Amino acid sequence: MNFELTSEQDMVRETFARFLEETCTPQRLRAAEASGFDAELWQGLADLGAFGLRVPEAAGGLGLGTFDALVVMDEVGRRLAGGPIAEAMLAARLIGQLGGDPAEIVGGAKVASLALHDMALRPRQFVAGGSVAELVVARRGADVVLLTVPPSARPAEPNLASDGLAEVDLAAAAATVLASGPAATAQFAAALEEWKLLQAAALAGLGAQALKMAAAYAGERKQFGQLIGQFQAISHPLADCLCDVEGARLLAWKAVREIADGSADAAVNVSLAIWAAADAAAKAASQAMQTFGGYGLTTEYDIYFYVLRARSWPLVWGEPARWLEEAGARRYGEGVVALPDVGDCPIEFDIGEEARAMIAEIDAFMTANVTPEMRAQFHYSWEGHVPELHKKMAEAGLLFLSSPELGGRGVGPYARSAARGALERHGYSNPAAGVAEMVGLMIARTGSDELKRDVLSRIISGDALASLGYSEPGAGSDVFAAQTRATPEGNGWRIDGTKMFTSGANLADYVLMLTRTNPDVPKHKGLTMFLVPLKAEGVTVQPVHTFQDERTNITFYDNVHVPDSWRLGEVDGGVRTMSAALELEHGGSFSKPMSHALHAAEALCRELTDPAGRGRLIDDPRIRARLARALANIWVGELFENRAAWAATEKKHNPGYGPMAKMHSSEKFLEDARDLLDMTAPLSLTKREGPAAMLNQCYRHAHGTRIYGGTSQVHRSMIAERVLGLPRTRG
């Protein structure tokens, strides 16, 4: 995998970023509002080669790829560079492809734009930068034409963003036919697909910069004696918007990669990328403005530019929701979409040979060893644990793949993630193995010889399980607030207290317990970790059932004695001991159960008809659009998870990739599960075997994902602090 620009692309990015920062200043933006155009800025972009980026070298251009253009457009969005920049890039490319001479556009002598709709059907249409566009490339039925537009046919008028938008009378322009026939119109259609990707990149850049401005303001502005960035009402919505913006950017990257690879889903991805970017940029800019409060409404502050252009840029095409319908039609309908030749793309999502081999091995193992009785027991929670299968996985070396200390193979994060995904596709989530691996690593690295001999060996062989005793009734996600006491007694310790949500304690042999050993120091410094046998005298396991068909437990410890040899790590060093297994956390998402929900809904939509009996739900454009939106969120979850794995593998700076993957996917899981349940009701309310039961379960499961492993609120704070640089929101 690779989520990093090449050195050449990074140099291009820096060149354009520096130029735009120096040239596209707030003062220049305000001065250009009257006409919506800055001629000096336009010429500077031309001098840097912006309009020749995608022009073939044979036609006098640079011949670079779509991804190079995305890099430039991201910076254009950040600085709100005015004029039809993406449109001029593609107009010049089309002219060069079809045998014309784009030199005037490439050199900046003339401003060009692109007509987004067939002028045979819309002879008058709104054109980006139309008031200043002397040239427009358009489709006219079977022809692709170059229009020379007189000033009288492109009158300027006030508009939302003061950016030169105009309704152009294309029929009044002098037309030169560049080419005719299916091949020519396919090239024009491909240019429109590329326009969506370039706009998506610009909107992602716009949204990211708006959030950066808001975060900077929130880190300086004080209210009620505190920096406003400390208020979760400020920081958490910004964190949500950041995930949406980053997700849209990655969808655009994914689309380019898929076009290059000839993926069947490439055209679907293009539509989803522009829809997601338009939605994310608008929300981010508006949330950023609210962060500024009343000041944001004034024209003294720059944020209003972002709010207005976040809407103006994509809406020149029309209603963004139609892109969702387009994605649904491409996913569930028929037809071939013309896509551009994107050239080289450095971004790579290939999981690698090790991961593919791991998937094949898991598939073969599950096919050979899983019986119908086992499969009937599978569940995403501990309730799906199958001891016989767990033991067979241990014997096959499939339990602790990343941990040589536990007899594992030391596979990389990609292969580990692929193996987990393969198991989940078979319906076996297997949280018991994940906890066993974490506890095993702690014992291997910080445990006594006795624990390694008597306990670790049993965990490695698949004969023993351990559960986690972190949470307490009054502590919730704040595990460092633990009050379960461990008091020295003789040559060991006496443990007294209560642990909540001790999932698997009814199945496990041991519990890994965080205890309070020193109440007189800061709470995170007075903790010690122990392993406690769950069959020890004084331990009581009481079931707690959730509405997700899942059992967890509350466990009570009354005068429980453990020898000092069952302590892990130093006394009062529990936090350091916990870190012994942190490398197992690579920012997993909930994209797999999200996929289960979508596949179940798709199956139901193929089975069900609409209430009026007009046809199957799957043929309804509105239903298809909602399914496509769920697909977009799954893909973003996968991208976030892959990016976190890549950062871990390549030792890249990772400010908040893991929390973004977890928080964003859990929130979207619930949002989509609710909508998918709605669209297939009332059948989805039942637990009938098959897709109805699966969707029903996914809806209930989704609620828990916002709580497991720390609530979404905790992860939002982490994102706000680590990525946006906001002050801590927790004491």
TrEMBL record:
InterPro entries: Acyl-CoA_Oxase/DH_mid-dom, Acyl-CoA_Oxase/DH_mid-dom_sf, AcylCo_DH-like_C, AcylCo_DH/oxidase_C, AcylCoA_DH/ox_N, AcylCoA_DH/ox_N_sf, AcylCoA_DH/oxidase_NM_dom_sf. Residues 191-312, 574-724 form the Acyl-CoA dehydrogenase/oxidase C-terminal domain. Residues 6-99, 353-463 form the Acyl-CoA dehydrogenase/oxidase N-terminal domain. The keyword Transit peptide does not apply. Keywords: FAD, Flavoprotein. It comes from the Bacteria. Pfam families: Acyl-CoA_dh_1, Acyl-CoA_dh_M, Acyl-CoA_dh_N. GO terms for molecular function: acyl-CoA dehydrogenase activity; flavin adenine dinucleotide binding. Belongs to the acyl-CoA dehydrogenase family. This is Acyl-CoA dehydrogenase. The lineage of its organism: Bacteria, Pseudomonadati, Pseudomonadota, Alphaproteobacteria, Sphingomonadales.
